[in-house]
Write the structure tokens for this entry.
Amino acid sequence: MSHASPESNVIAYRAAEQLLAARDPRGALKLLDPVVTAHPENTAARLLRARAFFLAAQLRAAELEFQLVLEREPDNAFAHFALARTLQRASRDGEARRHFRLAAALDPRPDYVAAAGFGQAG
């Protein structure tokens, strides 16, 4: 089996971004799996793959991938927010709230703050 070049990994990553934008998460996953296998430390590829899992409604896979990113980058606000959305979709609202609040604390973007619901009961 030939080892993919760094250039081909970049091309696959960019193509996967395009497929995700075009709402083809399964196509994106096909491109990203070999990139992540070749470069498991690549957080950007893992985040993109997690988003693809989420859009493909593969919530458990998305959750695990977002958690891997957060082990490496605990201050990644987007990863906390996306994990929270994944947990929320899986009806795990308590866990989701914690990650929404971490996202908002790390990056007080209006959408993160709104999702965190700091002023609400609960």
The chain has two domains: 1-58, 74-122. The mean pLDDT is 93. Residues 1-58 form one domain.
